[in-house]
Amino acid sequence: MVEDAEFAELKRTVTELKDRQAILDCIHRESRGRDRQDVGLIASCWWPEGIDEHGPVIMTAPDYPERANSGHARFFSATMHNLTTHNCEIDGNTAHSETYVIGTMLSPDKQSMKIAPGRYFDRLEKRGNEWRILYRRCTVEMSMDGSAEWVNGPMCKGFLRSVWGKEDKSYQRPIEVGTDGERW
Predict the structure, then answer these.
(1) Rounded to an integer, what distance in angstroms lies between the CA atom of residue 34 and that of residue 111?
(2) CA separation for the pair 19, 89 (Å, rounded)
(3) SS (HEC) of the chain
(4) Which pLDDT does position 179 carry in this prediction?
(5) Which own/partner pairs from 86-95 qualify as long-range (CB within 8 Å, at least 24 positions apart)?
(6) Is the pTM here over 0.85, yes or no?
(7) Which of 6, 69, 107, 139 counts the most CB atoms within 10 A of its CB?
(8) Residue 93 belongs to some domain of the structure
(9) 122 in a domain, yes or no?
(10) Which domain CATH number covers 139?
């Protein structure tokens, strides 16, 4: 029947859209976890046997959250991983994606910053109803260094600034207006 065929096609389409969104959500959660130094959030995005390749450093998923956080904390006082272009190919319970990332890193003294665009090549697997990263390869495509004087100047005075950990105001529920929080 036509209705059965239409329903089956609709079901396939909804399943694919749901999978694509779950994959993108996983990749976004992983970046948010690193920007907040949230070990649990980072770990929730990886299968236990997962492997991350950041340049010459290859880490297993169980070690990755702590090692990535300590590396960031050693060289920076804040990071932001801005995800942009995302392509994804799904084949059953395996997906391959390419996600552009613009990493921004603030120096420990908060006086300078780096911008480093790159890409993530991810292989994800769906187990049960959950998508997680199994393998990640990272590229760095270019970089730029600059002064962070603007955020330290009068234009940003009083703005909230990021905090590593769950003290960051993005975790606050419900979100409320107030005078608390780290400020420039």
Answers:
(1) 21
(2) 11
(3) CHHHHHHHHHHHHHHHHHHHHHHHHHHHHHHHHHHHCCHHHHHCCEEEEEEEEECCEEEECCCHHHHHHHHHHHHCCEEEEEEEEEEEEEECCEEEEEEEEEEEEECCCCCEEEEEEEEEEEEEEEECCEEEEEEEEEEECCCEEEECHHHHCCCCCCCECCCCCCCCHHHCCCCCCCCCCCEC
(4) 82
(5) 86/24, 86/27, 88/20, 88/23, 88/24, 90/16, 90/19, 90/20, 90/23, 93/125, 93/126, 93/127, 94/123, 94/124, 94/125, 94/126, 95/19, 95/23, 95/122, 95/123, 95/124, 95/125, 95/126, 95/131
(6) yes
(7) 69
(8) yes
(9) yes
(10) 3.10.450.50
What domain count does the chain have?
Answer: 1
Q: How confident is the model at residue 3 (pLDDT cuts 50, 70, 90)?
A: confident
Compute the distance between CA of residue 168 and CA of residue 182 in angstroms, rounded to an integer. 8
In a domain, 156, yes or no: no
In a domain, 183, yes or no: no
Cα-Cα-Cα-Cα torsion 62, 66, 68, 73, nearest 10 degrees, comes to 180
Question: Which pair of structure tokens corresponds to residue 51?
Answer: 């492997």
The range of the structural domain enclosing residue 79 comes to 2-150
